Amino acid sequence: MGRAVTTAVLADPRALQRSLTRAERRRKLRAFSLTLPLLVFLLATFMVPIAALLMRAVENPEVAKALPRTVGALQTWNRQDTPPPAAFAAVAADLGALPDRADAANLARRLNSEVAGARSLVLGTYKALPLEGATTPADVKARLVALDERWTDVRYWQAIARNGSRWTGGYLLASVDLRRDAQGQVERMPEDQRVFGRILMRTFGISAVVTLWCLLLGYPLAYWLSTLSARRANVLMILVLVPFWTSILVRIAAWIVLLQSAGLVNRALMSAGLIEQPLALLFNRTGVIVAMVHILLPFMILPLYSVMKSVPPTYLRAAVSLGSSPLAAFFRVYVPQTYPGIGAGALLVFILSIGYYVTPALLGGADDQMLSYYVAQYANVNVNWGMASALGALLLVATLVLYAVYRRVVKSELSLG
């Protein structure tokens, strides 16, 4: 029977094609079913949180949800003069319709991030509602102004009008020191409020210094490991990987002990007569860089070592035998072949560095905090998830841009090679 089916299939090319197509489809379905759990895991733990982060960075529900009548009443307002009485009546009605104090607190916190003093204004008005005896919009306006004269300040009304939409680019603009003026036009923030540009440059500067030191320390170590026998290299590689098995907090605590004024480093330098007074190695940029280099050094060594092991040692010997000096042969023959490892290690260390939070927070001073510190500040202290998400999105974009640049450089090198 099987031989007859085989003969029929061979006799009909179309039947053979259909059989091969079904077999290929079954193979792909089997492969997809094996990878499906991993895809679901990545979707749930990686893609969904990133999508939620990006959405929260442009979501602005507090004002639109709490003050719908007020937002509608301000649609035709010129944003320069005091709003009409209908807007005062609308804000009183909206605040009076809030279910509980928590909703008023959320609204007050959101507006206070735009204009200082909005929190006390909103909560004070919320406590005074309802306004007895106010039957017309003009009466409501008079009662609100008598309750708090700040209701005549157009800045608070401008903040409500700017944030009337459920979706906003205000958080993303603020993360790069931009904002919208009263008319909705994008402009730079005042000089004394431009903070995130400096923080971003500081983050990149610290990350670049850490990456450079990791490269300077990791390259000779990786080269030495690549020249050893496999058994000795494996034993020493365990020492390189020891930091992976130790908690970051434990390592930071150890550096605090080492770098403090009466720590081992200062005592050793003073005992050797190299210094007379303890060096300031803690709670400044020096301590941050030292600890970050120690933590991230393995991420530089591993890519370098894997590339160096694939470089035949005969290349250097051939260059020397052809008349080149050992130093020139090393830099002209050997180093160019390790560029992929240098690029991979530098990219990995730099990307990990720009997201560091714990190390600068514990070992650095006020001028050494990186962008991730302010993400945590907005999320945990200020409870401004929109701003925290916008800063997180800024770090994500920086990471993607760095990766794209790295890919382009690698492709250009491969095409030239």
TrEMBL record:
GO biological process: transmembrane transport
Protein name in the entry: ABC transporter permease
Domain ABC transmembrane type-1 span(s) in chain numbering: 200-406
InterPro entries linked to this entry: MetI-like (IPR000515), MetI-like_sf (IPR035906)
Organism ancestry: Bacteria, Pseudomonadati, Pseudomonadota, Betaproteobacteria, Burkholderiales
Source organism, top-level taxon: Bacteria
Family per similarity comment: Belongs to the binding-protein-dependent transport system permease family. CysTW subfamily.
Topological relation to the membrane, as annotated: Multi-pass membrane protein
Keyword Transport: yes
UniProt keyword annotations, A-Z: Cell membrane, Membrane, Transmembrane, Transmembrane helix, Transport
